[in-house]
From TrEMBL:
It comes from Streptomyces regalis. Belongs to the glyceraldehyde-3-phosphate dehydrogenase family. Residues 129-292 form the Glyceraldehyde 3-phosphate dehydrogenase NAD(P) binding domain. One of its GO terms (molecular function) is glyceraldehyde-3-phosphate dehydrogenase (NAD+) (phosphorylating) activity. PANTHER family: GLYCERALDEHYDE 3-PHOSPHATE DEHYDROGENASE NAD(P) BINDING DOMAIN-CONTAINING PROTEIN, GLYCERALDEHYDE-3-PHOSPHATE DEHYDROGENASE. It is an enzyme of class 1 (oxidoreductase). This is Glyceraldehyde-3-phosphate dehydrogenase.
Amino acid sequence: MTVNDDSFTNWKNREEIAESMIPIIGKLHRERDVTVLLHSRSLVNKSVVSILKTHRFARQIAGEELSVTETLPFLQALAALDLGPSQIDIGMLAATYKSDDRGLSVEAFTAEAVAGATGANKIERGEGRDVVLYGFGRIGRLVARLLIEKSGSGNGLRLRAIVVRGGGGRADEDLVKRASLLRRDSIHGQFQGTITVDEANSTIVANGNEIKVIYANDPSELDYTAYGIKNAILVDNTGKWRDREGLSQHLRPGIDKVVLTAPGKGDVPNIVHGVNHDTIKPDEQILSCASCTTNAIVPPLKAMDDEFGVLRGHVETVHSFTNDQNLLDNYHKSERRGRSAPLNMVITETGAASAVAKALPDLKARITGSSIRVPVPDVSIAILNLQLARETDREEVLDYLRDVSLTSPLRRQIDFITAPDAVSSDFIGSRHASIVDAGALKVEGDNAILYLWYDNEFGYSCQVIRVVQHVSGVEYPTYPAPAV
């Protein structure tokens, strides 16, 4: 086998450039609370290979070349600016610079594009906001990972405590086991950093963050101010209480707001970030992040309704099995869910379709839904079958959804993939609410069928974090501003 010297030299050159980007990205994050993105994908704490792969993936979406040789000058220009807390997309900067015909230098163009993050307009770095996790299961641990990652700048959200039920065994053993579950995950891999346990103080120390582990069987037992926690946002990952009365029990001393990681009932607002998060009232203390499936279907449903109009629709979700099913056949209050999850496809119900009305009250279309649980541990797919208000074709829908994923306000919620051989495991760790599979899209006249992948664990956890950031006042602006 012969080696193409030009290709190898080009690779080594790009590898060297990506390596030089890492300290700049890290310094911007640590010292100025700036998160560097590449077409909505964070480059913070990424390896050389990850940076190169992110550039390649972005190129596949945008349909045009994008190399580290193009994005490095924009990163260097950012490093020279006096930036405030923000998210800055160097992929968008590079793409918009190509289409700009004013002859500006990279430095001048960059300064203009991120003007809101500099000078008198910039946000000043605050003290941050305390966060408490109530429950430490699948979603709780992933939200914890994200919160620890977000604390890298020393500002923003601060995970202060985790509340779990009192165990029957020794407390120090319980603490070590919970730390181990945070450290290693069979689906999402190793925790990126270091974790130690301080048994004497009932504390987990993750990447320097001291996280108090509090044992309680009921919210009424707790006074968070005793742990130095104040004005905190509590994230309930248990789903035990889903109405306002039940969730109000969390409003104990030290807690200001409660965010539920399950669909809320009654008058509890169900929030899908990117779609209706701006409807949250400043004095609202209790809200829900709806379900993973609701977060997956509502953003693309809104996008399709905005452009084509939606008269009616049906969503069929093929969903990975979850902890509320049995490993082997056993008693369950839901008959089918009592059958072995790893061995069967299980027909079940989904409330996602009815939840659409709460997140999209202006949508007049009737949406129905059903679901099948299948023997995979993570990543699901929603098949969204829509009758549109006008006829279109596959190319128009594809071009539109690709543009939505790149430049619209929904670009953090909707991703787009063209890979013809993509399967569910390829989307483990996706930070988007859903990913449009371009190859599977079907359009005929006024009928469109969208295939939407979603990491029902990690992608949903990212949506939860976005809602928490918004209600805590530390959701920083993104530059360049997305197209409306």
